[in-house]
Amino acid sequence: MTWLEEGWRHVWLPYAQMQTAPLPLPAVRTEGSRIYLQDGRVLVDGIASWWTAVHGYNHPHIRQAVAAQLEAMPHVMFGGLGHEPAYKLATRLAALMPGSLNRVFYTDSGSVAVEVAIKMAVQARLNQGERGRTRILAFMGGYHGDTLGTMAICDPEEGMHALFAGLLPEQPVIALPRDEASIAAFELFLEQHAKELAAIIVEPLVQGAGGMVFHPPEVLRRLRAAADHYGLVLIFDEIFTGFGRTGTMFAFEQAGVVPDIVTLSKALTGGTCPLAVTIATDELFAAFLSGSPATALMHGPTFMANPLGCAAANAGLDLFESEPRLAQAAAISGQLARELEPCRELPGVRDVRVLGAVGVVELEAIENPAALRMRLVEQGVWIRPFRNILYLTPALTISAEELSVLTGAMFKVLSGA
Ligand SMILES: *Cc1c(COP(=O)(O)O)cnc(C)c1O
Question: Over the chain, what is the mean pLDDT?
Fold first, then answer.
């Protein structure tokens, strides 16, 4: 019996009906945009492991940085002890951020980074002596994580969390203000409920896990104006969009607005180690300063600011400086637009859309995602259909030839050829 078959009796997969889930493909090695399977097959990777491997797998610069850190100090607690990788990374992230987004809180996953953002927004008001602002306004189609606090701000219908109604804190989730009717509903909601709110949270430009749905930059400007008007903290969850995915280093740059809190994870370590950050403005941070321990932010994951993750993230930032990632994203964008466009004519295709290095083919429905996935594997590509979409979020280092293999396989499989 292989390790896969033996372990299959003990492993519990994400988002999977285990009674019918097919055995996963055994992967033994990665390099660039390739995944090597145990049986010798090699797949071109279209998703970069949930959008994390932005520099391609096993980039030598990141590998060396992590190896050196592993030699020196794989981990040390962050309470009371400081280490250069984390302090340097905080300085570099603050320098990348506009305005006074200068304060970096480390966690180990995107969901927890969002939890921390919520706690920051709510506690800032409490610290300032204002009670009753405990709610977070979120938007339909949004996704912010799988922990209890973040499930409450995901789309309640679309989301993977509808079952938990009753267990979750109640949070308002309304339509993004993007047309006349939804703008009016948004304005009315704020007039009636702004006093209960601590913050507004949104994934800027692309709602990723909710189905890769795009919205124009004006939406973000409207949210900024509303947050200013009602004195609310504006949180941009850039866990999917950050680090070049939408064509700019961060999606909010395209709207010319600056949020009060930014959450980052996914591509932060280039897909090497789990690490996340919640970055807050100086003004928000100041609400936690006093002579009393009671106003301190009460959060601290055991593996906070893990030095291996911070070393990987610093190396990733080096690569954004030394290699032309944003130019690569622009080239990918053009190629995706050209090569996915023919899919629009295929039966069952509802929409084809591209923003930055995100390419989406939306179908009427996907009856059997597992079977579709296997047909794509037969074409030599790793693309994971979900909901009613097939999407590509490749490494920004992917070659034009490899990208054509991905788009070609998608066209071929969707055309039933
Ligand atoms: C993936 C994702 C999260 C959750 O991150 P995890 O590391 O999976 O907890 C939160 N927000 C957005 C926008 C994401 O894409």
Answer: 96
